[in-house]
Amino acid sequence: xxxxxxxxxxxxxxxxxxxxxxxxxxxxxGLYVPDDMHGIGKGKKYYIRTYGCQGNQADGETISGILxxxxxxxxxxxxxxxxxxxNTCAIRENAHNKVFGEVGALKKLKAxxxxxxxxxxxxxxxxxxxVEKLLRTYPQVDLIFxxxxxxxxxxxxxxxxxxxxxxxxxxxxAGEVIxxxxxARESKLKAWVNIMFGCDKFCTYCIVPFTRGKxxxxxxxxIISEVxxxxxxxxxxxxxxxxxxxxxGQDLDTGYDFANLLEExxxxxxxxxxxxxxxxxxxxxxxxxxxxxxxxxxxxIHLPIQSGDDDILAKMSRRYTVEEYxxxxxxxxxxxxxxxxxxxxxxGFPGESEAQFENTLKLVKELDFDSAYTFIYSPREGTPxxxxxxxxxxxxxxVRLQKLIKEVSASALKINKEYxxxxxxxxxxxxxxxNEKILSGYSEENKLVNxxxxxxxxxxIIKVKITGAKTWTLQGEQVDG
Length: 481
Ligand code: SF4
Description:
This protein is of the alpha/beta class. 32% of the residues lie in helices and 21% in strands.
């Protein structure tokens, strides 16, 4: 018997830390739609703003799928919407500030339209301090739910709509795998496919293990049938998602791992496969063999290193050394043809000396990443690193970030210049943001290419001869054949 009750539940870091050895539950019947919620959204609109990673983007599409199942129509602005949801990211301070700014800006709208429902969900909703602040300072927020109970939106919304009470239901649990939820995908060409959820790596600066629960894999049958459905629907590209995809299957104890899954997805015939995010710690030779062997697995690897100094890596609890990372990096460059590698780097981690930062710069100069996402360290409530003295001044952090960006940009431009004269396969996504006459799309190496071409080819994979290179993009012209 389904439980339609709503529980007033705030997040608890203590509970979120817990991990059990029990296998995670796979729930095929997790969607709760009370009878009186069918069609509740007819003639009404919803607005959802999603921040952060691909995993949160995929959650955003599931939330949209559920609201559309209830009859709501998507809106691209909140002024004319009846439901407004901020699907948040907790990874850095500036993400926090943006959300509080946006919630603050909704106060007037709520005062003028008391009927609308304003909700906050996603990773920030899993943080104790955030929920306290929302309840204390933002009376315009009616609904707060987390990353583990998206499937319960219909009954949480029902409570918010009918009881006019504030609804706070955030589950700080290890989590289950919930299948069969509706998805309203943003794109008709490229699709996110979750393969696993959560993370057990507990890097000392990271909030994800507390906001997303324990590492839990979907069953391969469910993933393969989802991809086969996407092939039937004409999708050109899937991105397999997980906080740490390389750990896929380890919790299922069947010996079936990410290399096996990747090979089976490749055999579905989907034209393009990507996957994020990888952790150097679980990257096997078998995975490299599969990536190199299948043409429809894209030669693009996002491999966060975070720091180029072993002592800092140890304090981050990344569990690999710079030498081990370099070993993997060169294996990928040597064994995967035309392999493009990007990374994540944090500057100003507690205790990071000038010399340790120089080690990071030296590594970036040596490895020449195709690009890198670079961040200033910001303490996350409840993480082990937040208890370390954040002793690098903000000015020093900014100086280090600028130096790093300069180095990373130089490598990116150098590598992009080597593409001039090559012909690349590009999935045409549409016209370029800057110029309607120019088409735009990503190459197999995940390079953004702007090129002169035929608009009829939008949605197709075509060949483009590269004629120019900038730091973050390539220019070219369409070639036949
Ligand atoms: S691997 Fe580390 S950085 Fe990545 S999600 Fe897990 S804890 Fe966070």
